[in-house]
């Protein structure tokens, strides 16, 4: 299966989530912006559902944004029938994010895609282009049964 087919498959799944109102991304407002082979860009406009008791965007929300983007970048590189799940996730938070109308943009790229694991990295920037967080993940790959 080609990368363009996998990208269209992913777009279909994401669109279904939006139209059915299902999924953590939909509930938080995580939205796909770009998909290409080995790369995904998602954005999030902070809203009341994304903040913590200190009125800043919750670290788990930023982590979800990153996990979604990195998983999507990996998915675009997988052969037909191969599934994945996040095995390990590492995030470094650089600065707090207030709910001030500044869009968060996460760009993720794959680093390695093997037979049993894949790795990716991501960076999140605010509306001023300042780095908010960066991190990496390892995904476990599941080959289709023969």
From TrEMBL:
<dbReference type="GO" id="GO:0061522">
    <property type="term" value="F:1,4-dihydroxy-2-naphthoyl-CoA thioesterase activity"/>
</dbReference>
<dbReference type="InterPro" id="IPR029069">
    <property type="entry name" value="HotDog_dom_sf"/>
</dbReference>
<dbReference type="GO" id="GO:0005829">
    <property type="term" value="C:cytosol"/>
</dbReference>
<dbReference type="InterPro" id="IPR006683">
    <property type="entry name" value="Thioestr_dom"/>
</dbReference>
<keyword id="KW-0378">Hydrolase</keyword>
<dbReference type="Pfam" id="PF03061">
    <property type="entry name" value="4HBT"/>
</dbReference>
<dbReference type="InterPro" id="IPR003736">
    <property type="entry name" value="PAAI_dom"/>
</dbReference>
<protein>
    <submittedName>
        <fullName>Uncharacterized protein (TIGR00369 family)</fullName>
    </submittedName>
</protein>
<feature type="domain" description="Thioesterase">
    <location>
        <begin position="56"/>
        <end position="133"/>
    </location>
</feature>
